[in-house]
Design brief:
The protein has two domains: about 170 residues, Gcn5-related N-acetyltransferase (GNAT) (Aminopeptidase); about 120 residues, 3-Layer(aba) Sandwich (Aminopeptidase), CATH 3.40.630.30. The chain is about 30% helix and about 30% strand. The chain contains nine helices and 13 strands. The protein is globular.
C-alpha cells in the first residue's frame, strides 16, 4: 500500500521508514538503528543470542540451528541485520527460500514499530529482487502469532493476504512419563550414524515431505553445528536397512527446553506407527538431557500429525496466522 493511502495513525507510526533515504533511522523510543550486511557464519552467534531473548511466539532459538544450516545463507542478500548505535544486534530477518517463509526476531528492548516496519519493508524489497533476478514469480509466507494484531495489520498494509489453515505450536511437559516406542517386528530405532548416512537422511527428508529443495550439503552442515547432538538425531531403520522415519530434536542453548524439527516418515513406511515411535524416542532422549518442556510446530490443517502429537501428550501453545504474497518479476 502506498504511504499516502495508510490510515493517519499508521502513517505516523511508520513515517520514519516511509521517508527513509539512508539506512540510519532515528526512532523516538529506541534511539538509532542501522542495517548492515550479513558477514556469514561469524554472525551466527549474535543471531542465536538475539533469538534466545525473543519470545517463542516470534522465534524459536531451540530449532534455529536447523534453519541456520540451509543454503539460504549462502546468499548474503537473503539476510537482513539491524544494529543499534552500539553495534548490538537488535533485529534479524532471513528470507528462507528452502522453506518459502520468513524467520525474524527483534530484541525486546528494541521492538519499536519503526524497526519492525523497516524489517518487513526490507523483506518485501528482497522478495521483489528475487523475482526480478529469477524472472519467475516468488511466493513466500510469514507466520505471525494471532495475538500480535499490529504486526498482522502492517502485513495487510504491505499487501500480504491471509491463508488458512495457518500453523500451531504445541507443547508437552517432560517431567511426566514418556512411553517407550513400540515398533513392528524387524524395525530398529537408533540415532543417525553420522557422515556415512547423510545422503540417506537427505533422501528420507525429501521423500517424507515430497520436496526437492533439501541438499546433502545442508544435511551435512546440520551435523557440523555445535548445537547438534548426535543422540538427538533419531531414525527408524527398516528390516531392509533403509531409513524409514526420523525425528531430529534440538536442545535450547540454556537447556530445559527441547524442540522437534523436523519429523517425518518415508511414504513406503507410513501408517506403521514409525513416526510416533521416532517421536517418543526423541522425547525420551530430550528427557534424559534434563529437558522439562518440548515444542513442535505443524500446520493447523495437518490432522494426522496433530492426532499423533496429542496422543503422546502435546497440547496447544498458540496459533499462528499465515500471510503470503506473490511477487512478479518486473
Amino acid at each position: 500500500m502506498a504511504a499516502d493511502l495508510m490510515p493517519l495513525a499508521m502513517r505516523r507510526t511508520f513515517e520514519p521508514v516511509i521517508q527513509q533515504t539512508k539506512p540510519l533511522v532515528t526512532i523516538e523510543r529506541f534511539g538509532m538503528f542501522i542495517q548492515r550486511p550479513f558477514l556469514g557464519p561469524t554472525d551466527f552467534p549474535a543471531i542465536m543470542a538475539l533469538a534466545a531473548q525473543a519470545p517463542v511466539e516470534q522465534c524459536s532459538v531451540t530449532a534455529l540451528p536447523y534453519q541456520l544450516s540451509s543454503w539460504a545463507f549462502d546468499t548474503p542478500d537473503n539476510v537482513g541485520l539491524w544494529t543499534d548505535e552500539n553495534d548490538r544486534l537488535v533485529g534479524f530477518a532471513v528470507l528462507q527460500a528452502p522453506f518459502a517463509n520468513l524467520q525474524y526476531a527483534l530484541h525486546p528492548s528494541g521492538a519499536d514499530a519503526a524497526l519492525e516496519a523497516a524489517l518487513f519493508t526490507w523483506v518485501s524489497q528482497r522478495a521483489q529482487q528475487i523475482a526480478n533476478q529469477s524472472g519467475q514469480s516468488f511466493t513466500f509466507t510469514i507466520n505471525i502469532a494471532e495475538h500480535l494484531v499490529p504486526t498482522l495489520e502492517y502485513l495487510r498494509l504491505l499487501g500480504f493476504v491471509r491463508q488458512d489453515p495457518g500453523r500451531v505450536l504445541l507443547v508437552r511437559r517432560l517431567d511426566e512419563i514418556v512411553d517407550a516406542p513400540q515398533l513392528p517386528a524387524g524395525f530398529v530405532v537408533r540415532h543417525l550414524a553420522g557422515e556415512s548416512e547423510v545422503e540417506a537422511a537427505t533422501a528420507l527428508l525429501a521423500a517424507a515431505f515430497n520436496i526437492t529443495t533439501v541438499t546433502v550439503e545442508w544435511r551435512r552442515r546440520i551435523l557440523q553445528r555445535q548445537e547438534y547432538r548426535p543422540a538427538l538425531d533419531v531414525v527408524v531403520v527398516a528390516p531392509d536397512r533403509r531409513l524409514a522415519a526420523f525425528c531430529l530434536c534440538w536442545l535450547h542453548p540454556a537447556g530445559a527446553v527441547g524442540q522437534i524439527e523436523p519429523i517425518g516418515t518415508h511414504p513406503d513406511f507410513q501408517r506403521l506407527g514409525l513416526g510416533r515411535a521416532a517421536l517418543l524416542e526423541g522425547l525420551r532422549r530430550l528427557q534424559a538431557d534434563q529437558a522439562t518442556l518440548a515444542y513442535v510446530g505443524t500446520s493447523a490443517g495437518n490432522f494426522r500429525s496433530l492426532g499423533m502429537y496429542r496422543s503422546v501428550g502435546f497440547t496447544l501453545h498458540h496459533h499462528k496466522l499465515s500471510y503470503t504474497q506473490t511477487f512478479l518479476p518486473r
